Amino acid sequence: AQVQQQAARLQDRLSHVHHIVGVVSGKGGVGKSAVTVNLATACAMQGLRVGVLDVDINGPSIAKMLGVRAYTPKVTPNGVLPAEGPCGMRAMSMDLFLPDDATPVLWSAPTQQEAYVWRGTMEMTTVREMLTDTVWGELDCLFLDLPPGPDRLPNIAGLLPFMAGVIMVTIPSQVSQLIVTKSLTLAKEVLPNRVIGLVDNMQGYACADCQTLRPLFPEAGSGETAQSLHVPYLGGIPFDPALAQAADRGRPFVLDYAGTLAGKAFMQLADAV
Ligand code: ADP
After folding, report:
1. Considering only CA atoms, which residue is closest to atom 13 of ligand 1?
2. Residue having the nearest C-alpha atom to atom 12 of ligand 1
């Protein structure tokens, strides 16, 4: 009965959220969070009501990248009020509940082995609670910044049967193609027909002075990987040093750089999603 009640509460909360889009990656550090933040902002700049939930519990970075790290979540009888970011974006993240940036989220368990077994369940329980307890209000799209790694995909699929789909972020290196192939194969299995597509991050270097695209990785992109797995290819986002600086400053890059090569790429991605 308790499980049914939980499911009903989650469904009720999300009945005002029109689309839920998960952002995943085969491995960490490929720019999944940076892509989530800028894609969400690009959608918000186009007039959509957007929310972002940081589900990358062990490496939360959304609050910082959106400039809301100092927000303390307010609890109301109806639930927890999310932080408000640029363009009215609503954001919730585990690190808003942590006292400082040095404190990790610990899954305490008697042994390492149990900690590992518990990790998946605990992570997903936390995510479910954050989804259910946040007062999202009416949203056109809620983006979930999901933890990296294919091993999480089955749990994620089980948690959100009503998720519209997932976007897979990768970088155009051979090493990443291997892991993204694995991840996409699994994603197709556990989320049938719900892989929205593959995005290449850091595809070329956007030269700020000449506004041309220079090569960065030897591989041109992941178009062929996407094609061979019958997954839509959503295009590439260049590496732009201003994007990394903006993320560190806590201001989404696209807000100020929509006209640059990387900015335009995010706007196009928002159209494609
Ligand atoms: P992940 O979420 O995959 O672990 P992040 O989004 O945290 O990766 O990105 C890792 C670092 O690379 C961050 O400092 C981020 O600002 C930077 N970064 C990501 N994508 C780009 C890009 N296209 N251009 C410049 N810097 C980027």
Report:
1. 244
2. 31
Q: In terms of Cα–Cα distance, which of 206, 209, 217, 273 is closest to 244?
A: 206
Confidence of residue 56 (pLDDT cuts 50, 70, 90): confident
Residue 238 clears pLDDT 60, i.e. is over it: yes
- Asked if 33 and 56 count as a contact pair (C-beta separation under 8 A), the reply is yes
Our answer on whether the CB atom of 251 is closer than 6 Å to any ligand 1 atom is no
Is the Cβ atom of 38 under 6 angstroms away from ligand 1? no
C-alpha 78 – ligand 1 centre gap (Å): 35
CA nearest neighbour of 29 among 155, 173, 232: 173
Q: Domain extents for the chain?
A: 2-272
Looking at per-residue confidence, does 109 or 172 come out higher?
A: 172
Closest protein CA for atom 15 of ligand 1: 244
Position 27: which residue type? Answer: K
Would you say the CB of residue 64 lies under 6 angstroms from ligand 1? no
CA-CA distance, 151 to 92, in Å (whole number)? 24
How far away, in angstroms, is 13 Cα from ligand 1 center? 31
In this prediction the ipTM stands at: 0.99
Superfamily of domain 2-272: P-loop containing nucleotide triphosphate hydrolases (3.40.50.300)
